[in-house]
Design brief:
Structural class: alpha/beta
Number of strands: 15
CATH topology of one domain: Rossmann fold
Radius of gyration: 48 Å
Largest sheet: 6 strands, antiparallel
Number of helices: 17
Strand content: 15-25%
Distance between the termini: 8 Å
Length: 560
Protein backbone atom coordinates (compact mmCIF):
# COMPACT_ATOMS: atom_id res chain seq x y z
CA UNK A 1 0.00 0.00 0.00
CA UNK A 2 1.03 3.61 -0.47
CA UNK A 3 2.10 6.03 2.20
CA UNK A 4 -0.92 7.44 4.01
CA UNK A 5 -1.90 10.89 2.82
CA UNK A 6 -2.78 13.88 4.98
CA UNK A 7 -6.49 14.62 4.88
CA UNK A 8 -7.04 18.11 6.21
CA UNK A 9 -10.79 18.78 5.74
CA UNK A 10 -12.57 15.73 7.10
CA UNK A 11 -13.13 12.04 6.55
CA UNK A 12 -15.48 9.10 7.00
CA UNK A 13 -13.97 7.08 9.86
CA UNK A 14 -16.42 4.26 10.53
CA UNK A 15 -19.55 2.63 9.09
CA UNK A 16 -21.80 0.27 11.06
CA UNK A 17 -24.67 -1.57 9.33
CA UNK A 18 -27.17 -3.89 10.99
CA UNK A 19 -30.12 -5.81 9.52
CA UNK A 20 -30.03 -4.18 6.09
CA UNK A 21 -30.76 -6.10 2.85
CA UNK A 22 -28.39 -9.10 2.82
CA UNK A 23 -26.22 -7.58 5.55
CA UNK A 24 -26.78 -9.09 8.97
CA UNK A 25 -24.18 -6.93 10.65
CA UNK A 26 -20.89 -5.42 9.63
CA UNK A 27 -18.59 -2.68 10.80
CA UNK A 28 -15.67 -1.16 8.94
CA UNK A 29 -13.16 1.59 9.68
CA UNK A 30 -11.87 3.79 6.86
CA UNK A 31 -8.44 5.29 6.40
CA UNK A 32 -7.78 8.63 4.77
CA UNK A 33 -6.49 8.94 1.22
CA UNK A 34 -7.78 6.56 -1.47
CA UNK A 35 -10.10 3.82 -0.18
CA UNK A 36 -10.91 1.17 -2.81
CA UNK A 37 -13.82 -1.26 -2.48
CA UNK A 38 -13.79 -4.43 -4.59
CA UNK A 39 -15.59 -7.75 -4.58
CA UNK A 40 -17.46 -10.15 -6.82
CA UNK A 41 -20.55 -9.00 -8.65
CA UNK A 42 -23.54 -9.34 -6.34
CA UNK A 43 -21.43 -9.51 -3.19
CA UNK A 44 -23.04 -6.35 -1.86
CA UNK A 45 -20.68 -3.47 -2.71
CA UNK A 46 -23.49 -1.15 -3.82
CA UNK A 47 -25.59 -2.34 -0.87
CA UNK A 48 -22.88 -1.01 1.46
CA UNK A 49 -23.05 2.36 -0.31
CA UNK A 50 -26.85 2.21 -0.19
CA UNK A 51 -26.68 1.78 3.57
CA UNK A 52 -24.32 4.75 3.79
CA UNK A 53 -26.85 6.70 1.73
CA UNK A 54 -29.49 6.00 4.39
CA UNK A 55 -27.22 7.45 7.08
CA UNK A 56 -26.78 10.50 4.84
CA UNK A 57 -30.54 11.02 4.50
CA UNK A 58 -31.71 8.95 1.53
CA UNK A 59 -35.35 7.92 1.55
CA UNK A 60 -36.02 4.82 3.64
CA UNK A 61 -37.29 1.62 2.00
CA UNK A 62 -38.77 -0.88 4.44
CA UNK A 63 -38.28 -3.71 1.90
CA UNK A 64 -34.56 -3.47 2.75
CA UNK A 65 -35.21 -4.41 6.40
CA UNK A 66 -33.65 -7.89 6.57
CA UNK A 67 -35.45 -9.37 9.61
CA UNK A 68 -38.83 -7.73 10.06
CA UNK A 69 -38.92 -8.21 13.82
CA UNK A 70 -35.77 -6.09 14.15
CA UNK A 71 -35.01 -2.57 13.11
CA UNK A 72 -32.36 -1.59 10.59
CA UNK A 73 -29.58 0.56 12.02
CA UNK A 74 -26.92 2.39 10.00
CA UNK A 75 -24.34 4.57 11.70
CA UNK A 76 -21.63 6.63 9.99
CA UNK A 77 -18.91 8.44 11.95
CA UNK A 78 -16.99 11.40 10.52
CA UNK A 79 -14.06 13.48 11.75
CA UNK A 80 -14.16 17.01 10.34
CA UNK A 81 -12.79 20.49 10.61
CA UNK A 82 -15.81 22.52 11.76
CA UNK A 83 -16.53 25.08 9.04
CA UNK A 84 -18.83 28.10 9.31
CA UNK A 85 -21.45 26.22 7.28
CA UNK A 86 -21.31 23.23 9.65
CA UNK A 87 -21.44 25.51 12.68
CA UNK A 88 -24.63 27.14 11.35
CA UNK A 89 -26.23 23.72 10.79
CA UNK A 90 -25.25 22.61 14.30
CA UNK A 91 -26.78 25.77 15.76
CA UNK A 92 -30.02 25.53 13.77
CA UNK A 93 -30.48 21.89 14.83
CA UNK A 94 -29.56 22.69 18.45
CA UNK A 95 -26.61 20.26 18.36
CA UNK A 96 -23.45 20.85 20.37
CA UNK A 97 -20.57 21.75 18.08
CA UNK A 98 -18.05 18.92 17.81
CA UNK A 99 -15.40 17.82 15.31
CA UNK A 100 -16.79 14.26 15.50
CA UNK A 101 -20.12 13.74 13.77
CA UNK A 102 -22.08 10.50 14.15
CA UNK A 103 -25.05 10.11 11.81
CA UNK A 104 -27.50 7.35 12.71
CA UNK A 105 -30.58 6.13 10.92
CA UNK A 106 -33.07 3.63 12.33
CA UNK A 107 -35.77 2.05 10.13
CA UNK A 108 -38.66 -0.11 11.30
CA UNK A 109 -40.30 -2.85 9.22
CA UNK A 110 -43.36 -0.55 9.05
CA UNK A 111 -41.26 1.96 7.12
CA UNK A 112 -41.06 4.46 9.96
CA UNK A 113 -37.59 5.91 10.32
CA UNK A 114 -35.73 8.13 12.75
CA UNK A 115 -32.55 10.15 12.28
CA UNK A 116 -29.97 11.24 14.85
CA UNK A 117 -26.86 13.40 14.82
CA UNK A 118 -24.61 12.82 17.83
CA UNK A 119 -27.62 11.18 19.54
CA UNK A 120 -29.78 14.29 18.98
CA UNK A 121 -32.98 13.61 17.01
CA UNK A 122 -33.10 15.60 13.77
CA UNK A 123 -35.45 15.90 10.81
CA UNK A 124 -34.60 14.23 7.52
CA UNK A 125 -34.08 17.68 5.96
CA UNK A 126 -31.59 18.61 8.68
CA UNK A 127 -29.77 15.30 8.19
CA UNK A 128 -29.55 15.86 4.44
CA UNK A 129 -28.33 19.43 4.95
CA UNK A 130 -25.59 18.23 7.27
CA UNK A 131 -24.56 15.25 5.15
CA UNK A 132 -24.16 17.50 2.09
CA UNK A 133 -21.23 19.05 3.96
CA UNK A 134 -19.70 15.64 4.68
CA UNK A 135 -19.99 13.45 1.58
CA UNK A 136 -19.88 14.14 -2.14
CA UNK A 137 -21.49 10.98 -3.56
CA UNK A 138 -21.02 10.26 -7.25
CA UNK A 139 -22.83 7.20 -8.42
CA UNK A 140 -22.73 6.18 -12.04
CA UNK A 141 -25.90 8.06 -12.93
CA UNK A 142 -25.90 10.59 -10.09
CA UNK A 143 -23.84 13.54 -11.33
CA UNK A 144 -26.52 16.20 -11.40
CA UNK A 145 -24.28 18.60 -9.49
CA UNK A 146 -21.97 18.87 -12.49
CA UNK A 147 -24.90 20.13 -14.56
CA UNK A 148 -25.56 22.95 -12.10
CA UNK A 149 -24.30 26.27 -13.48
CA UNK A 150 -23.39 27.60 -10.06
CA UNK A 151 -21.25 24.53 -9.43
CA UNK A 152 -19.64 24.98 -12.84
CA UNK A 153 -18.92 28.63 -12.03
CA UNK A 154 -17.38 27.60 -8.69
CA UNK A 155 -15.08 25.11 -10.45
CA UNK A 156 -13.93 27.82 -12.85
CA UNK A 157 -13.36 30.28 -9.99
CA UNK A 158 -11.37 27.71 -8.07
CA UNK A 159 -9.16 27.05 -11.10
CA UNK A 160 -8.81 30.81 -11.74
CA UNK A 161 -7.75 31.37 -8.13
CA UNK A 162 -10.46 33.95 -7.51
CA UNK A 163 -12.47 32.30 -4.71
CA UNK A 164 -11.39 35.05 -2.28
CA UNK A 165 -12.39 37.77 -4.76
CA UNK A 166 -15.67 35.94 -5.25
CA UNK A 167 -16.23 35.90 -1.50
CA UNK A 168 -15.49 39.63 -1.37
CA UNK A 169 -17.85 40.24 -4.28
CA UNK A 170 -20.56 38.16 -2.60
CA UNK A 171 -20.34 40.38 0.48
CA UNK A 172 -20.58 43.58 -1.57
CA UNK A 173 -23.41 42.20 -3.70
CA UNK A 174 -25.21 41.22 -0.49
CA UNK A 175 -24.95 44.86 0.63
CA UNK A 176 -26.31 45.93 -2.75
CA UNK A 177 -29.29 43.59 -2.44
CA UNK A 178 -29.90 44.84 1.10
CA UNK A 179 -29.89 48.49 -0.02
CA UNK A 180 -32.13 47.63 -2.95
CA UNK A 181 -34.63 46.05 -0.56
CA UNK A 182 -34.54 49.12 1.70
CA UNK A 183 -35.20 51.34 -1.32
CA UNK A 184 -38.13 49.15 -2.41
CA UNK A 185 -39.60 49.11 1.12
CA UNK A 186 -39.15 52.87 1.50
CA UNK A 187 -40.69 53.51 -1.92
CA UNK A 188 -43.71 51.46 -0.90
CA UNK A 189 -44.05 53.47 2.32
CA UNK A 190 -43.64 56.76 0.44
CA UNK A 191 -46.21 55.72 -2.14
CA UNK A 192 -48.66 54.85 0.60
CA UNK A 193 -47.86 58.07 2.48
CA UNK A 194 -48.21 60.08 -0.74
CA UNK A 195 -51.76 58.85 -1.13
CA UNK A 196 -52.59 60.08 2.39
CA UNK A 197 -50.33 63.13 2.39
CA UNK A 198 -52.68 65.68 0.83
CA UNK A 199 -55.52 64.79 3.16
CA UNK A 200 -53.28 64.80 6.21
CA UNK A 201 -51.82 68.14 5.13
CA UNK A 202 -55.36 69.55 4.88
CA UNK A 203 -56.12 68.28 8.38
CA UNK A 204 -52.87 69.75 9.69
CA UNK A 205 -53.61 73.14 8.10
CA UNK A 206 -57.01 73.17 9.81
CA UNK A 207 -55.40 72.54 13.19
CA UNK A 208 -52.63 75.05 12.58
CA UNK A 209 -55.19 77.69 11.58
CA UNK A 210 -57.05 77.00 14.81
CA UNK A 211 -53.79 76.99 16.78
CA UNK A 212 -55.46 75.39 19.77
CA UNK A 213 -53.40 75.57 22.96
CA UNK A 214 -53.12 73.10 25.79
CA UNK A 215 -55.65 74.00 28.56
CA UNK A 216 -57.43 76.48 26.31
CA UNK A 217 -60.82 74.81 26.77
CA UNK A 218 -60.80 75.56 30.49
CA UNK A 219 -59.73 79.19 29.90
CA UNK A 220 -62.55 79.74 27.39
CA UNK A 221 -65.12 78.22 29.70
CA UNK A 222 -63.98 80.46 32.56
CA UNK A 223 -64.08 83.58 30.37
CA UNK A 224 -67.50 82.68 28.97
CA UNK A 225 -68.77 82.16 32.50
CA UNK A 226 -67.51 85.65 33.44
CA UNK A 227 -68.95 87.34 30.36
CA UNK A 228 -72.31 85.68 30.70
CA UNK A 229 -72.63 86.92 34.33
CA UNK A 230 -71.05 90.36 33.82
CA UNK A 231 -74.30 92.24 34.67
CA UNK A 232 -74.77 90.39 37.94
CA UNK A 233 -71.14 90.78 38.93
CA UNK A 234 -71.11 94.52 38.18
CA UNK A 235 -74.32 95.07 40.12
CA UNK A 236 -73.09 93.11 43.15
CA UNK A 237 -69.71 94.81 43.25
CA UNK A 238 -71.31 98.25 42.85
CA UNK A 239 -73.69 97.59 45.71
CA UNK A 240 -70.93 96.42 48.02
CA UNK A 241 -68.78 99.43 47.13
CA UNK A 242 -71.67 101.71 47.94
CA UNK A 243 -72.23 100.02 51.31
CA UNK A 244 -68.57 100.25 52.20
CA UNK A 245 -67.88 103.87 51.16
CA UNK A 246 -71.17 105.69 50.74
CA UNK A 247 -74.71 105.10 51.80
CA UNK A 248 -76.44 106.42 54.89
CA UNK A 249 -74.06 104.62 57.23
CA UNK A 250 -70.93 103.58 55.24
CA UNK A 251 -69.00 100.77 56.91
CA UNK A 252 -65.46 102.05 56.42
CA UNK A 253 -65.99 105.46 58.12
CA UNK A 254 -67.91 103.75 60.95
CA UNK A 255 -65.04 101.35 61.68
CA UNK A 256 -62.64 104.30 61.64
CA UNK A 257 -64.90 106.17 64.10
CA UNK A 258 -65.16 103.13 66.42
CA UNK A 259 -61.37 102.81 66.52
CA UNK A 260 -61.04 106.53 67.40
CA UNK A 261 -63.56 106.26 70.25
CA UNK A 262 -61.92 103.18 71.75
CA UNK A 263 -58.51 104.77 71.45
CA UNK A 264 -59.67 107.64 73.67
CA UNK A 265 -60.65 105.11 76.33
CA UNK A 266 -57.59 102.87 76.02
CA UNK A 267 -55.71 104.84 78.70
CA UNK A 268 -58.32 103.75 81.19
CA UNK A 269 -58.34 100.01 80.33
CA UNK A 270 -55.35 98.04 79.11
CA UNK A 271 -57.37 95.59 77.01
CA UNK A 272 -58.75 98.35 74.81
CA UNK A 273 -55.39 99.11 73.18
CA UNK A 274 -55.31 95.70 71.51
CA UNK A 275 -58.86 96.07 70.27
CA UNK A 276 -58.06 99.48 68.82
CA UNK A 277 -55.15 97.95 66.91
CA UNK A 278 -57.39 95.18 65.56
CA UNK A 279 -60.08 97.64 64.45
CA UNK A 280 -57.48 99.72 62.65
CA UNK A 281 -56.27 96.57 60.85
CA UNK A 282 -59.85 95.71 59.86
CA UNK A 283 -60.29 99.23 58.60
CA UNK A 284 -57.22 98.98 56.41
CA UNK A 285 -58.22 95.50 55.07
CA UNK A 286 -61.80 96.55 54.24
CA UNK A 287 -60.52 99.74 52.63
CA UNK A 288 -58.18 97.60 50.43
CA UNK A 289 -61.07 95.32 49.54
CA UNK A 290 -63.14 98.29 48.54
CA UNK A 291 -60.30 99.50 46.30
CA UNK A 292 -59.89 96.10 44.67
CA UNK A 293 -63.64 95.83 44.09
CA UNK A 294 -63.55 99.19 42.36
CA UNK A 295 -60.62 98.11 40.17
CA UNK A 296 -62.34 94.82 39.42
CA UNK A 297 -65.48 96.65 38.45
CA UNK A 298 -63.54 98.70 35.93
CA UNK A 299 -62.28 95.49 34.25
CA UNK A 300 -65.67 93.83 33.96
CA UNK A 301 -67.33 94.75 30.71
CA UNK A 302 -70.35 93.43 28.94
CA UNK A 303 -68.96 92.22 25.54
CA UNK A 304 -71.38 90.19 23.43
CA UNK A 305 -68.97 90.21 20.46
CA UNK A 306 -66.25 88.58 22.57
CA UNK A 307 -68.73 85.96 23.75
CA UNK A 308 -69.63 85.17 20.17
CA UNK A 309 -65.93 84.83 19.24
CA UNK A 310 -65.26 82.49 22.12
CA UNK A 311 -68.34 80.35 21.44
CA UNK A 312 -67.41 80.12 17.77
CA UNK A 313 -63.80 79.10 18.56
CA UNK A 314 -65.00 76.46 21.01
CA UNK A 315 -67.50 75.15 18.46
CA UNK A 316 -64.77 74.86 15.79
CA UNK A 317 -62.55 73.00 18.25
CA UNK A 318 -65.37 70.64 19.20
CA UNK A 319 -66.15 69.98 15.52
CA UNK A 320 -62.51 69.17 14.75
CA UNK A 321 -62.24 66.96 17.83
CA UNK A 322 -65.26 65.01 16.63
CA UNK A 323 -63.79 64.85 13.11
CA UNK A 324 -60.59 63.31 14.47
CA UNK A 325 -62.45 61.01 16.83
CA UNK A 326 -61.08 62.67 19.97
CA UNK A 327 -62.66 62.49 23.40
CA UNK A 328 -61.73 66.07 24.38
CA UNK A 329 -60.88 69.25 22.50
CA UNK A 330 -57.53 69.64 24.27
CA UNK A 331 -56.40 66.41 22.51
CA UNK A 332 -56.24 68.54 19.35
CA UNK A 333 -52.78 69.65 20.48
CA UNK A 334 -51.47 66.06 20.39
CA UNK A 335 -53.25 65.40 17.10
CA UNK A 336 -51.64 68.42 15.53
CA UNK A 337 -48.21 67.26 16.72
CA UNK A 338 -48.84 63.75 15.32
CA UNK A 339 -49.83 65.09 11.90
CA UNK A 340 -46.86 67.44 11.89
CA UNK A 341 -44.59 64.48 12.71
CA UNK A 342 -46.10 62.50 9.81
CA UNK A 343 -45.35 65.35 7.45
CA UNK A 344 -41.80 65.61 8.78
CA UNK A 345 -41.34 61.86 8.36
CA UNK A 346 -42.55 62.11 4.79
CA UNK A 347 -39.98 64.81 4.05
CA UNK A 348 -37.27 62.82 5.85
CA UNK A 349 -38.28 59.71 3.87
CA UNK A 350 -37.60 61.59 0.67
CA UNK A 351 -34.19 62.61 2.02
CA UNK A 352 -33.53 59.04 3.19
CA UNK A 353 -34.52 57.69 -0.20
CA UNK A 354 -32.16 60.10 -1.89
CA UNK A 355 -29.38 58.99 0.46
CA UNK A 356 -30.08 55.31 -0.17
CA UNK A 357 -29.97 55.84 -3.92
CA UNK A 358 -26.58 57.53 -3.63
CA UNK A 359 -25.36 54.67 -1.43
CA UNK A 360 -26.75 52.16 -3.94
CA UNK A 361 -24.84 53.84 -6.76
CA UNK A 362 -21.58 53.70 -4.78
CA UNK A 363 -21.97 50.03 -3.79
CA UNK A 364 -23.10 49.13 -7.31
CA UNK A 365 -19.97 50.76 -8.70
CA UNK A 366 -17.83 48.73 -6.28
CA UNK A 367 -19.71 45.52 -7.15
CA UNK A 368 -19.30 46.23 -10.87
CA UNK A 369 -15.57 46.81 -10.42
CA UNK A 370 -15.17 43.50 -8.56
CA UNK A 371 -17.39 41.71 -11.08
CA UNK A 372 -15.21 42.96 -13.92
CA UNK A 373 -12.09 41.71 -12.13
CA UNK A 374 -13.75 38.29 -11.78
CA UNK A 375 -14.78 38.35 -15.43
CA UNK A 376 -11.23 39.00 -16.62
CA UNK A 377 -9.79 36.23 -14.42
CA UNK A 378 -12.42 33.77 -15.59
CA UNK A 379 -11.92 34.70 -19.23
CA UNK A 380 -8.16 34.20 -18.94
CA UNK A 381 -8.56 30.83 -17.24
CA UNK A 382 -11.16 29.30 -19.58
CA UNK A 383 -8.79 28.23 -22.42
CA UNK A 384 -6.34 26.81 -19.86
CA UNK A 385 -9.02 24.82 -18.03
CA UNK A 386 -10.47 23.59 -21.34
CA UNK A 387 -7.03 22.46 -22.53
CA UNK A 388 -6.11 20.70 -19.27
CA UNK A 389 -9.53 19.06 -18.94
CA UNK A 390 -9.57 17.81 -22.51
CA UNK A 391 -6.06 16.42 -22.15
CA UNK A 392 -7.11 14.51 -19.03
CA UNK A 393 -10.31 13.30 -20.69
CA UNK A 394 -8.20 11.65 -23.38
CA UNK A 395 -6.08 10.01 -20.66
CA UNK A 396 -9.15 8.49 -18.99
CA UNK A 397 -10.47 6.85 -22.15
CA UNK A 398 -12.48 9.67 -23.76
CA UNK A 399 -10.29 10.58 -26.79
CA UNK A 400 -13.15 12.14 -28.75
CA UNK A 401 -14.52 14.20 -25.88
CA UNK A 402 -14.28 17.97 -25.93
CA UNK A 403 -15.22 20.30 -23.09
CA UNK A 404 -16.02 23.89 -23.92
CA UNK A 405 -16.74 26.61 -21.38
CA UNK A 406 -19.13 29.34 -22.47
CA UNK A 407 -18.95 32.71 -20.71
CA UNK A 408 -21.83 35.11 -21.33
CA UNK A 409 -22.05 38.60 -19.87
CA UNK A 410 -25.29 39.26 -18.02
CA UNK A 411 -26.60 41.88 -15.65
CA UNK A 412 -24.99 42.11 -12.23
CA UNK A 413 -26.07 39.09 -10.15
CA UNK A 414 -24.93 37.02 -7.17
CA UNK A 415 -22.13 35.50 -9.29
CA UNK A 416 -20.94 38.70 -10.96
CA UNK A 417 -21.68 39.64 -14.56
CA UNK A 418 -20.97 36.16 -15.93
CA UNK A 419 -23.11 33.18 -16.74
CA UNK A 420 -20.85 30.13 -16.92
CA UNK A 421 -21.95 27.08 -18.93
CA UNK A 422 -19.98 23.87 -19.40
CA UNK A 423 -20.75 22.45 -22.84
CA UNK A 424 -19.73 18.99 -24.02
CA UNK A 425 -19.20 17.10 -27.23
CA UNK A 426 -18.57 13.41 -26.56
CA UNK A 427 -17.95 12.27 -30.15
CA UNK A 428 -16.43 15.10 -32.20
CA UNK A 429 -19.82 15.91 -33.66
CA UNK A 430 -19.05 19.62 -33.75
CA UNK A 431 -22.07 20.31 -31.57
CA UNK A 432 -21.47 21.28 -27.95
CA UNK A 433 -24.49 20.85 -25.71
CA UNK A 434 -25.15 21.18 -21.96
CA UNK A 435 -23.63 18.26 -20.08
CA UNK A 436 -26.86 16.55 -19.04
CA UNK A 437 -28.00 16.33 -22.66
CA UNK A 438 -24.98 14.67 -24.25
CA UNK A 439 -22.90 12.86 -21.60
CA UNK A 440 -23.60 9.39 -20.25
CA UNK A 441 -23.41 8.57 -16.55
CA UNK A 442 -19.93 7.06 -16.85
CA UNK A 443 -18.70 9.99 -18.94
CA UNK A 444 -20.05 12.48 -16.44
CA UNK A 445 -18.39 10.63 -13.58
CA UNK A 446 -15.03 10.68 -15.31
CA UNK A 447 -15.51 14.32 -16.29
CA UNK A 448 -16.30 15.14 -12.66
CA UNK A 449 -13.13 13.31 -11.59
CA UNK A 450 -11.09 15.22 -14.16
CA UNK A 451 -12.46 18.62 -13.14
CA UNK A 452 -12.17 18.00 -9.42
CA UNK A 453 -8.62 16.77 -9.82
CA UNK A 454 -7.84 20.11 -11.50
CA UNK A 455 -9.34 22.22 -8.70
CA UNK A 456 -8.93 19.99 -5.64
CA UNK A 457 -6.09 22.04 -4.18
CA UNK A 458 -8.29 25.16 -4.22
CA UNK A 459 -11.45 23.66 -2.72
CA UNK A 460 -12.38 22.26 0.67
CA UNK A 461 -14.38 19.31 -0.61
CA UNK A 462 -15.96 16.65 1.61
CA UNK A 463 -15.34 12.92 1.36
CA UNK A 464 -15.88 11.89 -2.26
CA UNK A 465 -17.45 8.57 -3.14
CA UNK A 466 -17.41 7.17 -6.69
CA UNK A 467 -19.53 4.15 -7.53
CA UNK A 468 -18.08 2.31 -10.55
CA UNK A 469 -16.50 5.37 -12.15
CA UNK A 470 -14.55 2.92 -14.33
CA UNK A 471 -17.60 1.74 -16.25
CA UNK A 472 -16.73 1.17 -19.89
CA UNK A 473 -12.95 1.59 -19.60
CA UNK A 474 -9.95 -0.70 -19.14
CA UNK A 475 -6.24 -0.87 -19.75
CA UNK A 476 -4.40 2.43 -20.00
CA UNK A 477 -7.56 4.51 -19.47
CA UNK A 478 -8.25 2.67 -16.23
CA UNK A 479 -4.65 3.21 -15.17
CA UNK A 480 -4.98 6.95 -15.83
CA UNK A 481 -8.24 7.11 -13.86
CA UNK A 482 -6.44 5.41 -11.00
CA UNK A 483 -3.61 7.91 -11.17
CA UNK A 484 -6.04 10.82 -11.13
CA UNK A 485 -7.86 9.36 -8.16
CA UNK A 486 -4.57 8.84 -6.38
CA UNK A 487 -3.58 12.46 -6.97
CA UNK A 488 -6.97 13.71 -5.81
CA UNK A 489 -6.70 11.59 -2.67
CA UNK A 490 -3.52 13.39 -1.60
CA UNK A 491 -5.64 16.05 0.13
CA UNK A 492 -9.12 14.48 0.16
CA UNK A 493 -10.55 11.18 1.29
CA UNK A 494 -11.83 9.36 -1.78
CA UNK A 495 -13.84 6.12 -1.60
CA UNK A 496 -14.43 4.21 -4.84
CA UNK A 497 -16.01 0.96 -5.95
CA UNK A 498 -14.09 -0.45 -8.88
CA UNK A 499 -13.68 -3.58 -11.04
CA UNK A 500 -10.38 -2.42 -12.52
CA UNK A 501 -7.10 -3.77 -11.11
CA UNK A 502 -5.26 -0.68 -12.35
CA UNK A 503 -7.41 1.45 -10.04
CA UNK A 504 -7.46 -1.00 -7.13
CA UNK A 505 -3.65 -1.08 -7.12
CA UNK A 506 -3.57 2.61 -6.17
CA UNK A 507 -5.43 2.08 -2.88
CA UNK A 508 -4.23 3.39 0.45
CA UNK A 509 -6.83 1.06 1.94
CA UNK A 510 -8.35 -1.87 0.09
CA UNK A 511 -11.73 -3.14 1.35
CA UNK A 512 -13.01 -6.46 0.04
CA UNK A 513 -16.74 -7.21 0.08
CA UNK A 514 -17.76 -10.87 0.13
CA UNK A 515 -20.70 -13.17 0.80
CA UNK A 516 -20.70 -15.79 3.53
CA UNK A 517 -23.05 -18.21 5.26
CA UNK A 518 -24.43 -17.05 8.59
CA UNK A 519 -26.99 -19.15 10.47
CA UNK A 520 -28.01 -20.77 7.22
CA UNK A 521 -28.49 -17.42 5.47
CA UNK A 522 -26.33 -15.56 2.98
CA UNK A 523 -24.86 -12.37 4.44
CA UNK A 524 -22.45 -9.70 3.22
CA UNK A 525 -19.15 -9.14 4.98
CA UNK A 526 -16.28 -6.74 4.47
CA UNK A 527 -12.63 -6.93 5.43
CA UNK A 528 -9.52 -4.79 5.12
CA UNK A 529 -6.85 -6.40 2.95
CA UNK A 530 -3.20 -6.32 3.91
CA UNK A 531 -0.59 -6.11 1.14
CA UNK A 532 -0.45 -9.85 0.32
CA UNK A 533 -4.24 -10.12 0.33
CA UNK A 534 -4.50 -7.01 -1.81
CA UNK A 535 -2.04 -8.46 -4.30
CA UNK A 536 -4.11 -11.66 -4.46
CA UNK A 537 -7.35 -9.70 -4.98
CA UNK A 538 -5.79 -7.65 -7.80
CA UNK A 539 -4.35 -10.80 -9.38
CA UNK A 540 -7.81 -12.37 -9.31
CA UNK A 541 -9.19 -9.28 -11.01
CA UNK A 542 -6.53 -9.76 -13.68
CA UNK A 543 -6.63 -13.53 -14.19
CA UNK A 544 -9.61 -15.08 -12.42
CA UNK A 545 -10.16 -17.02 -9.21
CA UNK A 546 -6.89 -18.98 -9.33
CA UNK A 547 -4.28 -16.52 -10.59
CA UNK A 548 -0.87 -17.66 -11.76
CA UNK A 549 2.40 -16.54 -10.23
CA UNK A 550 2.77 -14.25 -13.25
CA UNK A 551 -0.56 -12.61 -12.44
CA UNK A 552 0.52 -12.18 -8.82
CA UNK A 553 3.79 -10.64 -10.00
CA UNK A 554 1.85 -8.25 -12.22
CA UNK A 555 -0.39 -7.31 -9.30
CA UNK A 556 2.60 -6.58 -7.09
CA UNK A 557 4.15 -4.50 -9.84
CA UNK A 558 0.93 -2.48 -10.19
CA UNK A 559 0.91 -1.85 -6.44
CA UNK A 560 4.39 -0.33 -6.65
Amino acid sequence: MHLKKIYFWGMLERLFIQNYAIISQLEVSFSNGLVIITGETGAGKSIVLGALGLALGDRADNTQVREKEKKTVVEASFRVKVSDALRRIYTDADIEVDDEIILRREIQASGKSRAFVNDTPVSLAQLQQLSSQLVDLHQQFDTLELGDKQFQRMLLDARAGCLLQMAEYTGVFGQLVGIQKKIADLNALIQKAQQERDYKLFLLNELEDLNWQDGEAKSIEEELNLLSHADQIRAGIGKMGFVLNEGEQPIIPQIKSMATQLQALSNHHPALAGMVSRLLSVHVEIKDIAGELESLLDGIVIDDKRMDQLNERLAVAQRLAKKHGLAAVDQLVEQRFALSTDMTKFEHSQDELSGLKKQFDLVQAEASMLANVLHEKRKLQIPLLESDANALLKRVGMPNADLKIDLKIRELSHSGIDEVSFLFDANKSGRHEPLHKVASGGELSRLMLVLKSLVASSLEMPTMIFDEIDSGISGEAAKQVGMLMEDLAVSHQLVAITHQPQIAARADQHLFVFKHQENGNISTGIRVLDQPAQAMAIAQMLAGENPSEAALASAREMMK
